[in-house]
Amino acid sequence: MHGIPSAYLQTKGKTVDVERTELPGIGVRFEFETKRGVRLGIVAHREGRRDFILYDPDDSDTALDCITLDSDESASVGELLGGGRVVEKLSRLHREIDNLVSRQLLVDATSPYADRPLGDTRTRTRTGASVVAVIRDSGVETGPSPSTVLHVGDRLVTIGTEEAVGKAGRILRGLE
């Protein structure tokens, strides 16, 4: 339960301290406390599933309840909670960090990765760039998992160096 505070959520000028803990072989756990003192956790599994955990206020090591959502349900909840602002936040981040670019890479009808899982592209391994969101007609899926299936018309929000993102685009088009 005691991770390193490494992320902060900004909401209307207020900051929420979020503890991030790597769970080897599983994914990442994020925990935070609400203004009312309720401790919540989210375990982001590598395959896309999310566990939402409500902790006992008298014992932070005891879960009172857990709700599990699959990757589609998680994406929908993320959209409801403001996931649609991811592109705006990435744009701001791009301006703040030298050498970091963000691009929306289109999955077109000629892509060898249309109707295949994102993991098949091996983008991060091959380029060092990361796909941080998938924008499609149904909404925005933030933090897509390797099992997220890509469809014609999807736009992959990809961050990395100019060279890495360019190579990711060429991979997506089947040129590398």
From TrEMBL:
Record PROSITE patterns: RCK_C (PS51202)
Signal peptide per UniProt: none
BP GO annotations: potassium ion transport
InterPro entries tied to this protein: AAE_transporter, KhtT, KhtT-like_N, RCK_C, RCK_C_sf
GO molecular function: monoatomic cation transmembrane transporter activity
A UniProt-annotated Pfam family: TrkA_C
Domain RCK C-terminal stretches: 90-174
Name used for this protein in its record: Potassium/proton antiporter regulatory subunit (CPA2 family)
